[in-house]
Amino acid sequence: MKINTRFIGALVGFVVALLFIFFNWKIVLLILGLSLLGYVIGMYLEAGQKVKTKLRELFSLFFS
User: Fold this and answer.
1) Which of 20, 40, 47, 59 sits CB 3.0–4.6 Å from 51 for a disulfide?
2) Predicted TM-score (pTM) of this structure
3) Distance between CA atoms of 29 and 23, rounded to whole angstroms?
4) pLDDT of residue 64
């Protein structure tokens, strides 16, 4: 069985839905935010300057 991105997205959505059912929404948002922060930090440490320029471009799109 080949795992594709739709399957991973459906699985992540299912897990997040379960978290919303069993926990308070503030806790779920905290978990998701910290997970995203860890992912971004890991990308930065792994790729170095390329990620830094991409993140700068992304933030300039949102906040300019």
Assistant:
1) 47
2) 0.54
3) 10
4) 65
